[in-house]
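TASK: fixed-backbone design
INPUT:
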């Protein structure tokens, strides 16, 4: 028997009646505010081309590793999920697989987001199950053929004001240029400079990548030319509207070294002769150099550390990256970032946003750092932590030390375009819940809580990300 359900209008709000009443008021004040999405992974070509979405599986399963990782953990193969490049899978069969395992998503953030998308976009109020899988597949597929469900129409429907993408330093940014030049498209789609593979000597293909960087910029092939090449590409991004540079590193280690040492390490990096310790020092120095460049060109510097990418070697070898086996590790900020902050932490032009998937650093390190350095902001809960209980733990961990205004505002960090409203709605509800508790406990007045609720979705991300 198919179970019928629907989104509770008070979902994620406090259970206590009086606190819930306050939270309702706070949430209502921001529920329909425009979405500012200053960090994410949506492909800008989707909006530039504005083609219909292919099918429900392509939209909700194939490219969402939040979903596929749990299906793999539940026994599904990569071939069955359509993720094996050597075999094809019928999208309907993949959808049926999701339906068969739908109960396993209960209580997860991804299950919550999908339920939100199913109801708000397609009017589906019943639980996905094997007996209704084909009917719901057909219902969604027929809706996707409607011009109102093309990417640009949904961009407007979602009230997205700013959407940042994540881009390779050598990207020509043609899709961004096309969107900026199109008078029929009024949103802001901003590129983000993501140089990780150009800063890590141990990254596969590092030497070839650096050769292409020098060739593209016409710079000398020494360390000074390397820095000039990176600066030139950053300038290209700034010219196309970029406001930030993003750094996804295993550890936020920084090193301030002499120029002759940097010259020697760069030569070894290109030659592939560095030891592991030397490669670490080079990466650390380049993260410090990225801060210097952000001081010079104004790009906000975001650091997303603490994830061991591609944890299962055979899965990476056979199926590639972003297949759900990126696993968090312990992170340390206080000592790792000290060289960078000693040199640039008090620079008025630097905005440095620290994210974490290690919850222990929020109250111990990140909030205290943000409570002193004017350049440093607390990044929103990210990846494994952008979930209801984790978001509330985050607010409790950082607010007493740094308040609300040293945080970044919410970032959705998603490739799943249709999940953007669900994720931002989740954050707005939970911030309303947290603020309502403070009001109920007499710790914050209702007018102040109302202002904070507004600022968390508007003034704060505009300030932090220089929007």
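OUTPUT:
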């Amino acid at each position: 028997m198919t179970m019928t359900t629907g989104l509770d209008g008070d979902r994620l709000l406090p259970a206590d009646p009086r606190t819930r009443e306050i939270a309702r008021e706070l949430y209502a004040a921001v529920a329909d505010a425009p979405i500012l999405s200053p960090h994410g992974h949506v492909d800008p070509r989707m909006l530039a081309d504005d083609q219909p979405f292919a099918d429900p599986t392509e939209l909700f399963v194939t490219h969402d590793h939040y979903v596929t990782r749990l299906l793999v953990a539940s026994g599904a193969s990569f071939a069955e999920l359509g993720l094996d490049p050597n075999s094809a899978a019928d999208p309907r069969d993949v959808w049926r697989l999701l339906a068969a395992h739908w109960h396993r998503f209960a209580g997860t953030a991804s299950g919550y987001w999908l339920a939100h998308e199913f109801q708000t976009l397609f009017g589906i109020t019943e639980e996905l199950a094997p007996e209704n899988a084909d009917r719901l597949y057909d219902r969604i597929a027929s809706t996707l053929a409607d011009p109102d469900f093309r990417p640009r129409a949904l961009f407007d429907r979602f009230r997205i004001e700013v959407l940042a993408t994540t881009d390779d330093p050598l990207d020509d940014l043609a899709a961004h240029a096309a969107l900026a030049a199109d008078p029929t498209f009024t949103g802001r789609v901003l590129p983000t400079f993501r140089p990780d593979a150009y800063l890590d000597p141990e990254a596969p293909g590092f030497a070839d990548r650096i050769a292409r960087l020098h060739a593209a910029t016409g710079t000398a092939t020494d360390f000074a030319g390397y820095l000039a090449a990176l600066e030139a590409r950053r300038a290209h991004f700034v010219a196309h509207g970029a406001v930030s540079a993003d750094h996804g590193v295993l550890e936020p280690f920084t090193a301030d070294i002499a120029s002759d040492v940097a010259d020697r390490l760069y030569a070894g990096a290109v030659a592939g002769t560095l030891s592991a310790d030397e490669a670490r020092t080079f990466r650390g120095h380049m993260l410090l150099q990225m801060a210097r460049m952000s001081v010079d060109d104004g790009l906000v510097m975001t650091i997303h550390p603490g994830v061991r990418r591609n944890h299962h070697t055979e899965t990476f070898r056979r199926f590639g990256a972003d297949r759900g086996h990126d696993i968090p590790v312990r992170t340390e900020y206080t000592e790792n970032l000290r060289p960078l902050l000693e040199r640039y932490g008090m620079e008025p032009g630097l905005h440095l946003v620290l994210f974490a998937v290690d919850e222990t650093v929020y109250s111990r390190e990140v909030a205290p750092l943000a409570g002193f350095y004017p350049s440093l902001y607390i990044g929103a809960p990210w990846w494994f932590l952008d979930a209801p209980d984790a978001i509330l733990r985050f607010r409790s961990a950082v607010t007493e030390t740094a308040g609300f205004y040293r945080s970044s505002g919410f970032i959705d960090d998603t490739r799943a375009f249709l999940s953007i409203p669900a994720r931002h709605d989740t954050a707005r509800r939970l911030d309303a819940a947290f603020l309502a508790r403070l009001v109920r406990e007499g710790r914050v007045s209702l007018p102040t809580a109302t202002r904070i609720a507004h600022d968390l979705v508007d003034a704060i991300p505009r300030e932090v990300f220089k929007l």
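COMMENT: The radius of gyration is 23 Å.
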